[in-house]
Amino acid sequence: MQRKKICVLGLGYIGLPTAAMFATHGHNVIGVDVRSKVVDALNNAKITIEEPYLDILVQAAVKSENLIGSTEPEEADVFIIAVPTPITNDKRADMRYVVEAAESIVPYVRKGNIVVLESTSPPGTVRDVLCPILERSGLVLGEELYVGHSPERVLPGKILMELVGNNRIVGGINRISAEKIKDIYKTFVNGEIFLTDETTAEMCKVMENTFRDVNIALANELAKICEETGIDVWEVIRLCNKHPRVNIHQPGPGVGGHCLAVDPWFIVEKNPKTAGIIKMARQTNDSMPHFVADAIDGMLGESDYSRKICILGVTYKADVDDTRESPIIDLISVLGNRGYEVAAYDPHATKFSCEARSLEEAASESEMVVLGVNHEAFKKINFTELCRLTKGKVFFDLRNFMDREELERAGFKVKVLGSGKVDVKEAEAEDMAE
Ligand code: SAJ
């Protein structure tokens, strides 16, 4: 394809890899962000987020002079909006950044240009929010200015691989818009690109994440049921999944990140009366930190809430540095509100509440160690030493991640989330009797 000038608005987890990808495939890219720190970092070929191989790609893009950062947009052939779409406290989409980005390009769009919304948005956003703003340019949309939605679908931790390999949906306000957008992405996408209309594409994106959220809610509900029944949820799931058409997801302390914990609300907001299962799934997943805190209360007995809990891992999932919407951050605040002293350690993340400087500091004199996130690095812990540091010698694995026997050999009493009632108090009493 002919070399194009592409203006990417938003240099976050999606915008930056996308900008670097276009640049390393020969396009002339300007990466725009309102945060001058991020723009300065980019112009020095540095990145401010943790994502495997992204630093190498950005260095190559900046070195080739095909990628520069700026705080202001400028004239280009293609504009890609990849800004955040968070939710407000009352679970409504906060579209402020999309509106600001769209307004910022109105003075620069010219006849023949393409505008793509990549940000995950409530169905109807291109039609009802983006198009009315772009019409202010005086251009006829679909004839002089081509507009559509092409949602990103990449998994944090594997962004670069998935950006290239995944299938992609492109929804255009008309056929020609969709085809023009497809031609742009074909530059680096090896997966198939499917064309549809803009609102269908928006619905597909939010529904993909909703599908996962609802399935995880089912697994979390099952974990609660197994706990009540006194059986092991992990064994139930392992055996159920031997059925050729069953794939029960993994229970855990809740669902985090800026996608699964957010996107289902975009459907609930637009269809509040109809989206019953979707809303209930969100509430079930959000209830998990309370369920975990109740389990901790149950294991430690009613006494003294000022006891210390050590938490391993605070990010929203394994091996990333992202704590957005992390259920472990919620757990820390639930435990804090109940009066526990909490100390948390995470090898990937910094600047979170109750942060301990080291594993030793977090574990020292704690009543219980709670594994919140299945970071690979935790497998290398010296558990005998960890157990020696703690006071209560109880290990609560919220992910079924650790080798139970290894923990027991190290001296821990082990409880796994959803694995039936293990009464640690009783076990302790037995020990003392021996
Ligand atoms: N989780 C569970 N149980 C499971 C699977 C996940 O509790 O069985 C939890 C994780 O611990 C985490 C959360 O769910 O807290 C989300 O993690 P994830 O790895 O499933 O997804 P994300 O949020 O990192 O990325 C998702 C992906 N969507 C789907 O797989 C449908 C990705 O493809 C999207 O691009 C991304 O959302 C996005 O940006 O929308």
- The portion of residues assigned to helices is 40-55%
Radius of gyration: 24 Å
Structural class: alpha/beta
Output mean pLDDT: 95
Number of domains: 3
CATH names the topology of the largest domain as Rossmann fold
CATH architecture of the largest domain: 3-Layer(aba) Sandwich
Question: Per the principal axes of the C-alpha atoms, what is the gross shape?
Answer: elongated
The count of DSSP E runs of length 2 or more, i.e. the number of strands, is 13
- The CATH class of the largest domain is identified as Alpha Beta
What does this structure look like?
The strands form 2 sheets. An 8-stranded mixed sheet has the order 3-2-1-4-5-6-7-8, sandwiched between helices. A 5-stranded parallel sheet has the order 10-9-11-12-13. The protein is an alpha/beta fold. Strand 1, helix 1 and strand 2 (28-32) form a beta-alpha-beta unit. The chain is 41% helix and 13% strand. It is built from 16 helices and 13 strands. Bound molecules: ligand SAJ. Ligand SAJ is lined by residues 120, 152-156, 208-209, 212, 216, 249-250, 252, 255-257, 259-260, 316-317.
Topology, element by element:
Elements lengths: L4 E5 L5 H10 L3 E5 L3 H8 L10 H10 L3 E4 L7 E4 L14 H10 L8 E4 L7 H10 L11 E4 L9 H7 L2 E5 L2 H11 L7 E5 H32 L3 H8 L22 H8 L5 H25 L7 E5 L14 H11 L3 E5 L13 H5 L4 E4 L11 H7 L4 E4 L6 H6 L3 E4 L7 H10 L1
Parallel strand pairs: 1-2, 1-4, 2-3, 4-5, 5-6, 7-8, 9-10, 9-11, 11-12, 12-13
Antiparallel strand pairs: 6-7
